[in-house]
Amino acid sequence: MNLKSMLTRLEIAMDRYDLIEQMVLRPEPKLAASKKAKSATSVNFIVGYNGSPKSQTALDITLWMAHQTRLATSKEVTVQVVYVVDDNQCNNFESASRTSFRDSPYLQAIFCHNNQFEQADKLLWQARSLADEWRGLFKAHLRFGSVGVELRKVVESEAATLLFLGCNSVSHSLVRELGSHFPCSVLGIPSMFNSHEDFYADEASKLQLNAALPVH
């Protein structure tokens, strides 16, 4: 899958010609033969999702790119979101909640993880709701551990075409955590999206945008 072609279609749709240099945080790596064979028939877009406005924007743009890729090619396109519960969140919670000797670390851990599961369920439901109009293949992943490590694991296991993050700088801590030899290209949101706005304002604008794009 040609990343430059996908981003060029996005530039044409938005009448902007500076998106490629803004959005590409990690370039496409040289693919192994096995991954090249798989990418010939399918496309996997993965979004690092945490429910923040910027991650919602990343999902909006990814869904648009997936839709256009499906129109332009005969490939099977899958959109996937990954929500990672950072282990440090529980550690910080447990440290902050120890107000007396009667506090039980065991009960604190149970309470923390129950809260995390509840929050994860809400956020993944939110992501599925945002993806409803996609009407294509959609998967959601819940992972526990280091965000960068878990994102890499999902990208590798799903042979991802690209990873989309809700950040807009190569100096962002998460981008640095991914390392320089990441198995797929990494995109961030353009600087024009400083706050969340639905990429599709309504169904009519979406249809107009689709109609304006070439499908070759």
CATH architecture: 3-Layer(aba) Sandwich
In CATH terms, what is the fold-level topology?
A: Rossmann fold
Computed Rg: 19 Å
Q: Catalogue the unreliable spans.
A: 98-102, 196-216
What's the helix count?
A: 9
The tally of beta strands, per DSSP, is: 6
**What would the average pLDDT be, to the nearest integer?**
78
CATH hierarchy, class: Alpha Beta
Q: How far do the termini sit from each other?
A: 13 Å
Largest sheet: 6 strands, mixed
Report on the structure:
By secondary structure, this protein is an alpha/beta fold. It has a single domain (3-212), classed as Rossmann fold (3-Layer(aba) Sandwich), CATH 3.40.50.620. 50% of the residues lie in helices and 16% in strands. The protein has nine helices and six strands. It has helices at residues 3-14, 19-23, 33-39, 53-72, 87-97, 105-130, 147-157, 173-178, 203-212; strands at residues 24-26, 42-48, 76-85, 137-144, 162-164, 185-187. A six-stranded mixed beta sheet has the order 1-6-5-2-3-4, sandwiched between helices. Helix 5 (87-97) packs across helix 6. Mean pLDDT is 78; it is low at 98-102 and 196-216.
